[in-house]
Write the structure tokens for this entry.
Amino acid sequence: MICTRDRGESIQSTLRSILACHYPDFTLLVVDQSCDRRTEQAVAVFAEDPRLRYLRTHTQGLSMALNIGLAMSTSDIVVITDDDCEVPPNWITEMVAPFVRYPQVAAVFCDVIAAPHDPQAGWIPINIAAHSFLVEDLTHWQTSDGVNVGIGAGMSLRRSCAQAIGGFNPLFGSGSRFRSANDVEMTLHALAAGYQIYRTTTVGVIHYGFRTHEEGRHLTRRNLFGIGALYGQLLRRGYWITLRYYLVVFKVAVLVPALKDLAHRQPPRKLGRAFWLLRGLIEGLATAPLVRTRGFLGLS
């Protein structure tokens, strides 16, 4: 599944790479929230491939698009990437395999690797783990980078598990109240519900989502705000153990960079991140959580 918005012709490389996967039987679902018809026209190039399904929706927010796609899916395993990624031919196979090996796994994440780019001009969000691992419950939460176990650009879900906890939370993700963190929000709630999460390093997707340094700073603030709000919501629900995980994020995102700058006799440049983490935490605590029931949140 791909959820897209105003991507236009550039989505074609993503579609082409998925349709080239070796997995014997799959359907590629595109959920399009675009403001114009450029993406629809770009997808139409592949219309003769019977594996392709396309849905245009006037809803807003990534989590809403994901829930619509999950509700439409007929398979219990749904493999997801972003509309600015390319996947290798074995991607679906490797993203499905852990569900067979671990019956309690609700979600699988893979590496997200940066496409070639000029690091002097900007950067591309990535998530790379040192090794594969299984997260068995909320008390054994671990991450690949100190913040996330993985990101939505390389994710697969057991649909029945997602449906049991309400799917993705419309308060989180691009275009929502809390702007981001819908992937980690889903992950932590799955663990709280008794499911497991698997992080694989056997496969990765290539991410072409280049940001200038200024765009990257805005993205980082948005992500930290969403992560702070996520932990605020979890604390409001009574998951006190997650306070420890919030403090780890604070350490990784704020304290460690500040100490590195001081060690090089430079003024700390990342202390502003603390504002966004704290603001998110406060707003998350102040906002009534959505009631999670069986189904997909936001859909009647």
